[in-house]
Amino acid sequence: MKKIYAMLLVLISFSAFAQETHVNFERYLIAGDESPMIIKDYLNPAMVGMMNNISSGWYSTADTHKRFGFDITIGFVGSFVPNEDLTFDISKYNNITVDGGQKMMPTIFGTKDKSPSISSPIFQPNSPMRAPNGTGIDPVVAPTPILQAGLGIGWGTEVKFRFMPKVGAEGYEFGMWGVALQHDVAQYIPVFKRLPLSLSVLGGYTKSSATWTFNEKDNQWLGSNQHTDFEVQNYTFQLLASTNIPIINAYGGLGYNSSKSSYKMFGEYIIDDKNGNINTINDPASNDWKSSGFTGTLGVRLSIAFFKIFADYTWKEYNTASAGIAFSFR
Question: What was the pLDDT predicted at 1?
């Protein structure tokens, strides 16, 4: 099973694209005290995309399972990164110079074309150093796999779980877990008993974590234990509605999301300064993001016996698309 998870990650997660283009954002440590903010600018669309991704994919109907009814769902969520987040303005920083005076540099989802060389008045790399490329994903989507199960516990209530052990490949590991409750409120409104409609509320929490170990082959800095840990958390609260007819149904939701994410660079980095001194920097950078706001979702689900195929679109900070298949019983 772990091999299946790893294959999914390699095929669809942003880490696979980053491995392909040898993204090594530790190169921005050349900027000294300004490096945490430069790295934050570079990673921004991946972190914001992940915050939006993990809040999605919780439902494909407002109907809840009967007691001991269940479903197992495999889905994929992708956030659409706006064009303005494919680059960032590096000219606002004083401790880094770009060859040719280029002002706009690629973020992690920007162009994968070879980036210009960078230098600093503070530190001297072991050899001429280029800025990190982007991953060049087209169309620009920050994708995440969603694996979850739902179980009816009675009283019109369903508990949902999502879980992925921390697995990965080639220096990147990703894991996720979450829990949600969905409760049928149509049962309290008599008119809904005569209509092919379902109405429910959902509250959920998801946490994902990842570790990036820097590629020794392309790393400019000597040292040890060089890696970055990422963490993303989300709370979501939704009012759901769906039709309840055979074969094809529409569903949607209105709600509110609150998310936060962070990265922390760990390890020892040995960097020479322009005066010929050797500097040892430990745990050099960290930063965090917060995001909150209202969301709206519209989707459609096709039922073929116990199998459900669904797709939806959600409007929020980064708009997202979800799709998947579920085995659902009762």
Answer: 43
- Integer-rounded Cα Rg, in Å, for the chain is 23
β 320-329/172-184 pair status: unpaired
CA distance 187 to 202: 15
Neighbouring residues of 217: CB distance < 8 A, sequence distance ≥ 6: none
Query: Which pLDDT belongs to residue 169?
Result: 64
Angstrom distance (rounded) from CA 125 to CA 203: 49
DSSP 70-133: EEEEEEEEEEE--GGGSEEEGGG-SS-EEGGG--EEE-TTS--SPPPEEE-SSEE-SS-EEPPP
Q: Where are the domains of the chain?
A: 2-329
Q: pTM surpassing 0.90?
A: no
Across-strand partners of 87? 106
Q: Contact at 8 Å (CB) between 104 and 90?
A: yes
| 3-state SS class at 19 | helix
Residue numbers in the chain where pLDDT is lower than 50: 1-21
- CA angle (73, 79, 84) in 5-degree steps: 175
pLDDT at position 124 is 81
Tell me which residue of 283, 296, 285, 247 sits closest to 263, measured CA to CA.
285
What gap in Å lies between CA 131 and CA 99, rounded to an integer? Answer: 10
pLDDT value for 22:
53
**Residue (of 39, 61, 330, 326) closest to 186 by Cα position:** 61
3-state helix, strand, coil in the chain (%, to 5): 20, 55, 30
